[in-house]
Design brief:
Blueprint (H helix, E strand, L loop, with lengths): L1 H29 L1 H5 L25 H36 L1 H15 L3 H11 L3 H10 L4 H14 L3 H8 L4 H37 L11 H8 L9 H28 L7
Helix pairs in contact: 1-3, 1-11, 3-4, 3-6, 3-7, 3-9, 3-11, 4-7, 5-6, 6-9, 7-9, 8-9, 9-10, 9-11, 10-11
Length: about 270
Amino acid sequence: MKSWNRRQKALLLSAAGLALLAAVLLAGAALEAAALKTDFSRKNLPPCPAFLFGTDWMGRDMLARTLAGLSLSLRIGLLTAAVSAGVALLLGTLAAWNRVLDSIVSWVIDLMLGIPHILLVILISLAFGRGFWGVTAGIALSHWPSLARLFRGEVLQLRQAPYVQAAQKLGTGRWALFRRHLLPHLLPQFLTGLVLQFPHAILHEASVTFLGFGLPPEQPAVGIILSESMRHLTTGQWWLSLFPGLALVLTVTLFAALGEVLRRLSDPASVHE
């Protein structure tokens, strides 16, 4: 009963975290227009009941800008994590079944892991024209190697299982073998990898945008907010960077915690703890 209660608490925590992130996603999407609204009669206001995160030098509501930026980062994180996890599953599985593909995929993985990650994201983003789709392509096409290596190792191990070898000897095709016998075992790792890709994707999107190689300056992205706020810290406007930075850190931490909870729940050994 004790282990069951522990798993129940983990599931409840995951549901609460997902609900909070969904609320941020929807609120940010709804406040995109308010995040761009300027009013110079209320510029440089510190945090107050009317503006909880204060206003910037153009009178824009920092709470609306922060939520809109987080919502944009969550959308990019969701898209890039799904694409990179799908590519990793596909290439990792194919590499485990074909020696030629294994050599090619392993060479590409070693090549990509040998390049500094942030530099690789910037190069791919520039190649795709920067902006939303450039950043999305840069993150999605650079985050799959480690996860693909994990899937390759899992498939190689599962191929030696007696029931998989028996199914092969009975004439089961590769697609049917993958769908019936391998995919159920790979699904927990896929979901865990998908969730754990989120914090990396969000941080890299903010980092690339902060450096000026990501989203355009007219979009209320967290990286742009932090980059612009650096020019006003010396004037005492601390709230311009403090609240967006804390919101980004809390979001990334929550995603990392959700990934760890999901990893534990998908581990069969956790049932007997």
